[in-house]
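re: that chain from earlier
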Amino acid sequence: MSQRQGSNAAPSDDLTEHTRWNFAAIVSESTSFQTGRAWSDPSAVLPLFIAALTPSTVVVGLIPVLQRLGFLLPQLAVASVVGHRPRRAPYLRWGVLVGRFPFLLFVAYLWVRGMSNPGAALWFLLLSHFCVALGNGFVAIPWQDIIAKSIPPRLRGRFWGTLMFSHAAAAFGVGFGVRYLLGPDGPGFPRSYLILFTLSAVFYTMSTIGCALIREPIRPVLKRAEPLREVIAAARPLLARRPEFRALVLIGLLAFGLAFTMPFYIVYATEELGIEPEMAGVYIWAAMLGGAFFSLVWGRLNDRRGPRAVVRAGCLFTMLAPLLAISIPIATRAAANVFPAAEGALPYLFGLVFVVAQSSMAALFMGTVNYVFGLATDEERPRYIGLFNTLSAPGAAIPLAVGWLLNWLPFPPVLAMLAACGAGVVALSQRMPEPETEQGRDQKA
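^ sequence. v structure.
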């Protein structure tokens, strides 16, 4: 059982102070990181860069796999390390610094060596992005724990909605830059990508500095260190006695795995549908603006109906994304038989796929994080976060499997498989129980 360090309880006014500060500080820091990520967008920029270096769709599938695995792998070890420590902010600050440094080295390598060795540049790119993901995985528990301690449950939907809206608003201008740099008037390959990666490095650095400004409330923690083997051993009884946690793990494993197939949509658009690569900028706009609108919707839904409703919406959108990717080209071509000008609308209508795919990611992230917050006490939270993210790790293989399938099958049947899997996830989400709220636990206590 969890043991409290009662002396760590914060005064009630401490929550108000840190809520206001951290609301602004975390939104600003996270927005800087996501803006940097948009300049080298894993769904619309990296696949084009990789396609210029290798025809392998498996390598394209490695992008989300490495990102997901890098994010998930460190978390049980971190849960063991920080569970008994009242202050988790130092792990946040050092984690982002060490994790993002290899990406800065990659950018420096490109400035010095350029594309003289395309193979080395490709694998340096994958390694550096994996390190960024590892760093994010290392800091995920401290970062989420500080949010849970700083932002009360009644404000979490508003917080996540504001954060995601800020991501989208800041990244809106990025779409213009990507469209120009990858378009016919841009500097051309490889200099356009060098500029994009450099801008990513600048904003990653701003985010790293911002992490140092986050303040941490002190809350109850475990009285002793919890060895890694105990954290791992807790998984089976937790899955057995908490049906809501078990359902959440299944959703995380399948729904996130399907959502991380988003990079294949830009490859499908450019290679199969004949859409120009510079439309990647438009798709970033679509994803960001659509995500901005729906992040506000998800935030309001979370505060009014709870995180379960947000998770269910994310699962529904996970199914809709591949369905739209199949149906939009078919509908456009059918319309072109009557109105020939309709065929020119295909590149823009296809942006709806990115709107839905990005919105599904936002809903799944917001919903699952708040669902975990609702399940765990202050002492248990690091363990719950680490176990949930680690147990859902096998879903990271789904994009890799999609890349392998595309070596043998054309895009439409593979997308149909993804839609069918999405329908299964939607059905699974309807069986999720409502998590016990933190307020409910407090009333029982």
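The chain has one domain: 9-213+227-437.
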